[in-house]
Amino acid sequence: MEIKADKIILKATNWVGDVVISLPALKAIKSLYNDSEFTVVCKPYLREIYENLGFIDRTVCLGSNSPGAFYRLSRQINREGYDLGILFQNAINGALLFYFAGIPRRLGYPTDARGIFLTDKPRDKYENTHQMDRYLGLARYLGFEGQAPSPYIPTGFDEHKGKREFLYSFLSRGLNRQVPESRHIIGIAPGAKYGPAKMWGEGNFRELIRLLLEQKNINILLIGSREDDALSERIISGFSPERVFNTSGRFELLESLYIIGELDMLVSNDSGAMHMAAARDTRITALFGPTVFSHTSPLSQKAEIFFKRVECWPCRHRTCPRDTHGCMEQIKPAEVFESILRRISD
Deepest in the core among 51, 54, 126, 194, taking most CB within 10 A? Predict the structure, then answer.
């Protein structure tokens, strides 16, 4: 459906992983409206990603969820005179925001009882497909017919891509300690904001690190946010401080994207870090448990997925209700280790 729009505003998703999965759709919509002005409403910590894409004109952040902040933002959006509002986020609050802002065309799936606040609400036929296809469905509603664009995210450090000397210097400055050169750098991302059901477990990650450190040409970086710092510290406790480094919470988001892009491989739960690796074209070893990996797998041809089907799969619980965590515990460190060695030697 053709919708003429000189000014477009988009309500982004709230998590890094969802941002990466939705980027192909955002790029597809931009290709349809190349001359239009684009604004993104997003969480403050995601702002730098959108501002660094090169084609977003403005970002707007809702500082709090208070009624006063909501009202002020809706009035601000109203004054800007947008023609089209697009909702990547599924919740009702984005639809309410655009409705009260008086945007004449409001596009989104009629989820969360918000259909009455939308003017354009395509049928959501993507329940059993990858989430990227669901976001891309909004672009196809607007007339996009091509292949899904890449989810690649640039950083301010791309001129140094592939330059290991700069990487080691960058890491050493950020960690305030010397990071020695090694032939291979493997990233380990042990966290998952979703909850412990998605996490492989500290013992498994420790055993994998032990096996990797038996190879003299491999160093390890723990990857994560500030919330993952304590977890990462527990996992690396007792390992050589000259070969294992905790970067969790030590770098800003785009800095972490740059670092992930320089890894030989990232080993990760189904998490934002996994999708960040896809956005930087890094090899991925993805560990999936209680969720359907075909819906949220990394957008990458360089990913290998580890998954063990158990009778209770997919439960989608945030915490294992059986306390066995069988779907994750059946993935053994030795098989993950063998896969990593094979792939980094290719």
Answer: 194
